[in-house]
Specification:
16% of the residues lie in helices and 11% in strands. The chain is built from 3 helices and 5 strands, in the order E-E-H-H-E-E-H-E. It has helices at 41-46, 59-69, 110-113; strands at residues 18-19, 38-39, 72-76, 81-84, 124-125. The strands form 2 sheets. Strands 2-4-3 form a 3-stranded antiparallel beta sheet. A hairpin with a 4-residue loop joins strand 3 and strand 4. The relative contact order is 0.26. This is YkgJ family cysteine cluster protein. Pfam families: CxxCxxCC.
């Protein structure tokens, strides 16, 4: 019997990443959901974390509130990028711990919508098989 063992990629070493295929997502332990997620104001609006009226406020003030709320861990003022909070195990704040599925899938940020077409190694995925 010929059994093929798939060893998971090392998230920090993009040379171990595997060329992406749509079917991989159903067998993966959501490794992409452990990478930092950078979002813009439009993403935060879609996610329901900010209101349209906050668009006129300084982004630094918005970031300060979101950091206090625990949903943003960093803000890059120069690039107007917010980095979403991750849990202690590096899971995205919005990743369900049991199902390993996104709890805000329909409202997810552009970064997530476009993965792996964009990112550290476009076209490749840090695939890790489900245990």
């Amino acid at each position: 019997m010929n059994v093929r063992l798939i060893v998971g990629a090392d998230l920090d070493r993009t040379d171990t990443w595997i060329r992406y295929e749509k079917s991989m997502c159903h067998a993966c332990a959501s490794s992409c959901c452990t990478m930092p997620v950078e979002v813009r104001f439009a993403d935060l609006l879609r996610m329901g974390l900010v209101d349209e009226f906050e668009r006129s406020e300084p982004l630094k003030s918005v970031a300060k509130r979101l950091m206090k709320d625990g949903v943003v861990e960093r803000f890059n003022q120069k690039q107007s990028l917010f980095t979403l909070t991750r849990l202690a195990n590096n899971d995205c704040y919005y990743l369900d711990r049991k199902s390993r599925l996104c709890t805000i899938y329909d409202q997810r940020p552009e970064t997530c919508r476009n993965h792996p077409r964009i990112g550290p190694r476009p076209g490749y995925c840090a695939f890790k098989p489900n245990p």
